[in-house]
Design brief:
The protein is mainly alpha-helical and 147 residues long. The protein has helices at 2-18, 46-54, 60-63, 84-87, 90-99, 133-145, and strands at residues 26-29, 34-37. It has a single domain, classed as Cytochrome Bc1 Complex, Chain D, domain 2 (Orthogonal Bundle), CATH 1.10.760.10. A two-stranded antiparallel sheet has the order 1-2. The longest helix has 17 residues, at 2-18. It binds heme C. Heme C is lined by residues 53, 58-60, 62-64, 77-79, 81, 84, 93, 96-97, 100, 104, 107-110, 112, 139, 143. Heme C binds at residues 53, 58-60, 62-64, 77-79, 81, 84, 93, 96-97, 100, 104, 107-110, 112, 139, 143.
Length: 147
């Protein structure tokens, strides 16, 4: 009996490792360039997303223009995001927020939902993501509303 249980445990572990690009919130498909939400009760909110978008924490506006007239300082390292919601669906937008480098490995855009584990990452940031899954979803809703 114990042997059977251990067997299933090992199989489970094996598949867990194979599907490394899945976490409990999102599933990344690197061929289709999409990230699908798997935690269905996670719902984004446009207003919250806009607040995150203009916040200094993520600094989207230091590289992108967006149709927010009250924000005077907007960057042009990245493409303007006006109308982005008509060019991409939510799964495509989600991947760009989670990990833009999986679309373009040389991208200067930070990966906002990838665990930080560089050699010299300070301990308090190690294995943490810049944004929470909820914040990613809020941003996706906001970006998708830019038609
Ligand atoms: C350091 C600069 C930088 C920051 C900060 C940044 N981006 Fe980007 N972003 C880019 C660049 C450059 C691209 C173009 C794709 C590439 O990397 O080659 C891009 C691409 C994108 C795209 C795809 C646009 C398209 O037309 O294909 C989206 C969506 C996007 N960024 C959203 C965001 C959001 C949301 C934030 C903040 C949470 C953000 N970016 C922060 C530089 C940045």
């Amino acid at each position: 009996m114990n042997l059977i249980i251990s067997f299933f445990f090992i199989i489970n572990l094996f598949f867990g490792i194979c599907r490394a690009e899945t976490n409990k919130f999102f599933e990344i498909d690197k061929k289709k360039f999409i990230a699908v939400k798997i935690k269905k009760d996670l719902q984004g909110n446009i207003e919250r997303g806009k607040k995150i978008f203009i916040s200094r924490k993520v600094n989207c506006l230091s590289c992108h223009e967006a149709p927010i007239i009250e924000e005077k300082f907007q960057g042009n390292f990245g493409p303007p995001l006006g109308g982005i919601g008509s060019r991409y669906n939510k799964d495509e937008l989600r991947l760009r927020v989670i990990d833009s480098k999986s679309v373009n490995p040389n991208s200067i855009m930070p990966s906002y939902f990838k665990k930080i584990k560089f050699e010299r990452t300070p301990r308090e940031f190690l294995n943490r993501t810049i944004l929470s899954a909820q914040e990613v979803e809020d941003l996706v809703e906001y970006l998708y509303s830019l038609k």
